[in-house]
UniProtKB/TrEMBL annotation:
Residues 15-262 form the ABC transporter domain. GO terms for molecular function: ATP binding. It comes from the Bacteria. Signal peptide: none annotated. The lineage of its organism: Bacteria, Bacillati, Bacillota, Bacilli, Bacillales. It comes from Fictibacillus halophilus. Keywords: ATP-binding, Cell membrane, Membrane, Nucleotide-binding, Transport. It is found in: Cell membrane. This is Peptide/nickel transport system ATP-binding protein. It is a peripheral membrane protein. CDD domains: ABC_NikE_OppD_transporters. Pfam families: ABC_tran, oligo_HPY. Belongs to the ABC transporter superfamily.
């Protein structure tokens, strides 16, 4: 659908995803198409897009946990020197435990309900190290303290004796205690109230500074992505339709989908308009040929039916849209 010409040649990159495509094994339906992005060490990369756009699936490939019903049909995912798509399950387990930490919205199921949090921490630590129980407890308390929890109390509690925010913090402590190189935070605040969610994201950014790790922050909420990422990729229908330094994408969006996402944010310092901007068509309506957003795009042109090249606005900003280069001399299709 989208012809990708972007390159990812920064020496400092921790994660490099190139030309990644994922299909359903049976139907050959494309779920992810030619993804290219990279995350330098110490930076936060945001993936934003509506439900079903392929954000979590991208995370699943990076974690090497793709379901058997799906297959990687092209591309590469490199974490440091390791090519994730060709590692054995044993090698992947090691990377998942130590190099990549995964935080999901589903923090409630992170801990087994009938075992105290502290005991679960000790088991995880002793599974990866040869520490004694006493030493492992010290480590657990250290990391529970790091995520600003009353460490001793949480250590001695059952999961259902903690609030949602406390549980998410405890799951963060458990995920980061082996000092991962990459944290994948997949909608980590969806199940939390707004303020608690904001604090969790602040905490992640604080820990990133301390660990000098990278973060892949996945969200459908632009608000979270804008404030906390260096670079953002906007996904639609399994494609990254726009990518760039977050400040550039926000101040000068190119793709009509990005523009609509930005317009649909409510701004507290502005009057609420009588009619809020809306998007045409149903979420999940993806064109099979050309630009995946063309069936809903208010600026659709005849050429959008064909392969859309990824056009470069400058070194830090790309969009898979004819609007980058076209002086709009083409006829828009009227909607
Ligand atoms: N194991 C699977 N088998 C078949 N299809 C799948 C599988 N996992 C994901 N998909 C499909 O891939 C597409 C992308 O799903 P994905 O979970 O990545 O979306 P998402 O952008 O993360 O959405 P959300 O924000 O709702 O989590 C969807 O159409 C989904 O139905």
């Amino acid at each position: 659908m989208i012809e990708n010409k972007t390159t990812t040649t920064c020496e400092n990159n921790l994660l490099v995803v190139e030309n990644l495509s994922v299909n359903m094994r049976n139907s050959r339906e494309k779920l992810i198409c030619n993804l290219h992005f990279s995350i330098p060490q110490g930076e936060v990369f945001g993936l934003v897009g509506e439900s079903g756009s392929g954000k979590s699936l991208t995370a699943t490939v990076i974690l090497g946990m793709l379901s058997k019903s799906l297959e990687v049909t092209s591309g590469s995912v490199k974490l440091g020197q390791s090519e994730i798509t060709s590692l054995s399950e044993r090698e992947l387990r090691k990377i998942r435990g130590q190099d990549i930490a995964y935080l999901s919205q589903n923090y409630q199921s992170f801990f087994t309900p009938f075992i105290k949090v502290g005991k679960q921490f000790i088991e995880i630590i002793r599974c990866h190290t040869d520490m004694s129980k006493k030493e492992a407890k010290k480590v657990a308390i250290h990391w529970l303290d790091k995520v600003h929890l009353p460490a001793e109390r949480v250590f001695n509690s059952f999961p259902d004796e903690l609030s949602g925010g406390q549980l998410q913090r405890a799951s963060i402590a458990s995920a980061i205690m082996f000092r991962p190189k990459l944290i994948i935070a997949d909608e980590p605040t969806t199940a939390l109230d707004v303020l608690t969610g904001e604090r969790i994201l602040d905490l992640l950014c604080e820990l990133k500074e301390e660990l000098n790790c990278s973060i892949l922050l996945i969200s459908h909420d632009l608000k979270h992505i804008i404030n906390r990422t260096n670079t953002v990729g906007v996904m639609y229908g399994g494609n990254i339709v726009e990518m760039g330094k977050t400040s550039a994408v926000v101040s000068e969006p190119i793709h009509p989908y990005t523009k609509l996402l930005l317009q649909s944010r409510l701004k507290l310092n502005k009057h609420i308009p009588h009619v809020l901007p809306t998007m045409l068509g149903e979420p999940g309506l993806v064109a099979k040929e050309g630009c995946p957003f063309s069936k809903r795009c208010p600026s659709v042109m005849k050429s959008c039916d064909k392969v859309v090249p990824v056009n470069t606005l400058n070194n830090h900003h790309f969009a898979a849209c004819h609007l980058v280069n076209t002086e709009r001399e083409e006829q828009y299709v009227t909607r």
